[in-house]
Amino acid sequence: MTTGDELRSLLRLFPSGVSVVTADADGDRIGVTIGSLVSLSLEPPLVGVSVGKDVALHELLRAAKLFGVSILRGDQAAVASHFARGTPPIALWSGVETRTGETGAPLLADALAWLECRVWADYDVGDHTLFVGEVVALEEGEPAPALVYRDGGYHAQ
After folding, report:
1. I need a labelling partner for 1 at 20 to 30 A (CA). Which of 27, 63, 88, 123 fits?
2. Could you give the C-alpha distances from 145 to 16, 76, 130, 139, in angstroms and in order?
3. pTM for the whole thing?
4. Strand-pair category, 147-150 with 128-140
């Protein structure tokens, strides 16, 4: 039987785009780096993000019902690392420039692109939950290479 560590090791060979998913529920803001953003449908416009059940964002997403996705540029590896560390919420936003999206979701400034979503559905998928978001707003930033994760590190593509 295949183990989770074996799967993780193999999937490190496959580059995935890097983004930071953010939510704000009554003033409690959190952001987490993910590599699981996927387009699910064009009509209606739906995307999916997989969030670990032990991650602080998990329950906040359920409460907020809205989330933002900041797709990172190739030169934003430090930002990705910052939001991947599990930094306590009080320090999470220190030194990080943000803006408020149309839905009220916090978005990271200077990203490659942004999506704002309303939670459409959520599905239990083992130790994660797949949150399906209906895209209600989107915007492109300045053209640049995207940040991807491959072989255990961040790379500009």
Report:
1. 123
2. 13, 10, 27, 16
3. 0.92
4. unpaired
- Hey, what's the torsion of the CAs at 37, 153, 32, 88, to 10 degrees? 170
Q: What is the largest CA-CA distance in the chain?
A: 46
Which residue in 91, 95, 120 sits closest to 108, CA to CA?
95
Tracing tokens 């989107």 back to the chain, one arrives at: 138
- The two structure tokens encoding residue 122: 């959520």
Per-residue tokens: 23? 């939510």
Whether omega before 44 lies within 30 degrees of 0, making that bond cis, reads yes
* Element holding 78 (H helix, E strand): helix 77-84
pLDDT in tens, 105-139: 999 999 999 999 999 999 999 999 999 999 999 99
